[in-house]
Amino acid sequence: MAHANGHSRFFPHPGPGPVIETAVTLTRSGPCLALVRHAANCSNDITRRESAAYQGKEPKVSSSDARNPDFQKIFESLPNQYIIVTPDRTIVAATDTFLASTGKSREAIVGMDILDAFPDNPDNPDAKGTEILRGSIERVVETGKIDILPPVRYDIENADGIFEPRWFQPLNAPAFDDDGKLVYVLHGAEDITAQMTSKS
User: Fold this and answer.
1) E strand or H helix at 134, and its extent?
2) Contact status, residue 81 vs residue 188, Cβ threshold 8 Å
3) Which of 29, 28, 37 is nearest to 78 (CA)?
4) Which end of the chain has the least Cβ crowding within 10 Å, N or C?
5) With bands split at pLDDT 50, 70 and 90, how would you rate the model's confidence at 136?
């Protein structure tokens, strides 16, 4: 899938349910990524059509907005949990849902190494979340290919400094510039804590 402002790549969405493809488009303006989900049950379309606010009418979009979409805002508003890092793991962007799930603010984590922003639980000697995440990002950088992982326990520190047990379904995917150079890694981490704990 090509785009006038850059390149697109398709990746499977990490969440549970039917297979969903996600297109990652890198624009020349930096880490502004448009993630377009393709599935029969596209949640954005359903929400838009069922919203009483529209009263059966399609939303109006100005020609200037259509020509110059705000990809940063689009990315941040996605209903899925994603974070973008550079090849050296520096955080450059995150969706609102990712921040809500982890209890972090955009201002607090952007510019940090993702492993420092989300450290292992020091009270769990068996914690391997950072090790697994580091290895996956390195594989993506080295191979330029998507890396899909099995469910991972990765405890998250809350506002009180207490680490809460959490489970995520992660994937890491590459984003390339116009020259084919890998410049960002898209980290998807759907929170599946409820599903995992219900099995125990």
Assistant:
1) helix 129-143
2) yes
3) 37
4) C
5) very high
Query: How far is C-alpha 117 from the geometric centre of its chain's CA atoms?
Result: 15
The pLDDT of residue 199 is 76
Within its chain, how far is the Cα of 96 from the centroid?
10
DSSP secondary structure letters along 61-75: --HHHHHS--HHHHH
Place of tokens 């297979």: 19
Tallying the residues shown for the chain, one arrives at 200
Residues 6+ apart with CB under 8 A from 8: 1, 2, 23, 24, 25
Does the pLDDT value for residue 20 go beyond 70? no
Distance between CA 190 and CA 184 in Å, rounded? 19
Instruction: Output the DSSP codes for 106-122.
Output: HHHHTTSBHHHHS---T
Backbone angles phi, psi at 158, to 5 degrees: -90, -175
Residue ranges with strand state E in the chain: 2-3, 6-12, 21-27, 33-38, 82-85, 91-94, 147-148, 152-153, 156-157, 163-164, 167-176, 182-191
Residue 180 DSSP one-character state: S
CA atoms of 83 and 54, how far apart (whole Å): 31
